[in-house]
Amino acid sequence: MIKAKKSLGQNFLIDPIILNKIVELVNIKNKAVLEIGPGTGNLTDYILKKKPKKLIVIEKDNFLAFNLQSKFNEQINIINKDVLEINELLLCEEKLIVFGNLPYNISTEILSKWVTNINNKFWFDTLILMFQKEVADRIIAKFNTPNYGRLSILSNWKLNIKKILDVDPESFSPKPKIKSTILLFVPKNNFHKIKDPKNLEKITRIFFSHRRKMLKKPFNQVFNGDQKILEKLNFNLNMRPQNLDYETYYKLAQEYEKLTS
């Protein structure tokens, strides 16, 4: 029996109903597929039954990678590396459909990396990813809600996101202490062009550093109280960071780039 490693955030999905629902979400027949963190290969098995053209898996754990190679042989292409060190543009000439039961401890880092590294070319067609429920709630949060924040703004910048379902701890081995959530991400045809994603990260970091306080202080810190920008974006400095929608933060990042260019 293969034991999960807490250090790598491993929880293996074992529920056949959930596994089947995941592979039914999109048509993968004759498509190029990438699986992140396949673990013991439970989802891998279901993916292969749908007859993809190619299946690439990224598994950091050496023992699990060896086990997967023994189990699936030539059916899969194994990359035994940390997903955060991978250049996704070099994985495949075609756009990939990505499945991932992401390690809980680095899930937001993986998503942030993927969003910020996209320029005008998406390397994926669809992302079907599993997160801790509390993280998923932050990803899909709308403005004026308690979970809304930096992760919500960054995630929704270039991607349309749909919640699929929550998954109970009993669907995993070992059982995590919390629920998980499956989210489906599809690239947006149009999104606000920001030259350097670090500028969006900077704006949201400054504005949300005191999320319960009014916007006057962070706005003055970044824009020196510029009334033209305030009138252009049409918001009240007595509002709080969670009162501004996604679009306003993207526009703020664009205005910041104009000032600093």
What features would you describe in this structure?
This protein folds into 2 domains: 6-187, 3-Layer(aba) Sandwich (Rossmann fold); 197-260, Helicase, Ruva Protein, domain 3 (Orthogonal Bundle), CATH 1.10.8. It contains 10 helices and 9 strands. The protein has helices at 16-23, 42-49, 62-72, 107-117, 133-139, 150-158, 197-208, 216-223, 227-233, 246-260; strands spanning 12-13, 32-36, 54-58, 77-79, 96-101, 124-132, 159-167, 172-173, 180-187. Helix 1 packs across helix 2 (42-49), helix 4 crosses helix 6 (150-158) and helix 6 crosses helix 10 (246-260). It is elongated and about 65 Å long. The N and C termini lie far apart (57 Å).
Structure keywords:
alpha/beta, seven-stranded mixed sheet, 9 strands, 37% helix, 19% strand, Rossmann fold, Helicase, Ruva Protein, domain 3, two-stranded antiparallel sheet, 261 residues
Quick structural gist:
The protein is of the alpha/beta class and 261 residues long. It has 10 helices and 9 strands.
Shape: elongated
Which CATH C-level class of the largest domain is it?
Answer: Alpha Beta
Largest sheet: 7 strands, mixed
Major sheet strand order: 4-3-2-5-6-9-7
Percentage of helical residues? 25-40%
Rounded mean pLDDT is 93
CATH topology of the largest domain: Rossmann fold
Unreliable residue runs: 4-9
Q: How many separate helices?
A: 10
Q: How many domain units?
A: 2
The total count of strands amounts to: 9
Query: Could you give the order of the helices and strands?
Result: EHEHEHEEHEHHEEEHHHH
Structural class call reads: alpha/beta
The appropriate CATH architecture of the largest domain is 3-Layer(aba) Sandwich
Strand content of the residues, in percent? 15-25%
Radius of gyration: 20 Å
CATH superfamily of the largest domain: Vaccinia Virus protein VP39
